[in-house]
Inverse folding.
């Protein structure tokens, strides 16, 4: 499952420093970009938390699953730690639960 494969990278994006996020996004493979795109898609299909409303346009761009576009959108948002936390923390917890259950 894509979420399980990228769990460590998602944690780094959500909790890491600016330099860690930059390095990770510069070297991100297609699988990680598609995982972020999936997270945006799932978040948009649910009720968006109020704290994420200001990112609705960026989330819609991310959900298109075109790695080049995903990478360019994320480069613009790399400084905004709250975006990554809002997007990823719920999915990280869900991924950890799945990982523990599968073992």
């Amino acid at each position: 499952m894509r979420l399980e494969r990228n769990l460590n990278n998602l944690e780094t994006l959500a909790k890491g420093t600016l330099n860690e996020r930059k390095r990770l996004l510069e070297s991100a493979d297609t699988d990680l970009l598609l995982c972020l795109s999936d997270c945006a898609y799932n978040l948009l299909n649910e009720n968006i938390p109020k704290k994420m409303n200001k990112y609705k346009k960026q989330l819609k761009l991310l959900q298109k699953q075109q790695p080049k576009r995903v990478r360019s959108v994320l480069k613009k948002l790399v400084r905004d730690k709250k975006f990554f936390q809002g997007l990823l923390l719920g999915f990280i917890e869900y991924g950890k639960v799945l990982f523990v259950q599968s073992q």
User: Anything to note?
Assistant: Residues 81-102 form the longest helix (22 residues). The chain has seven helices and no strands.
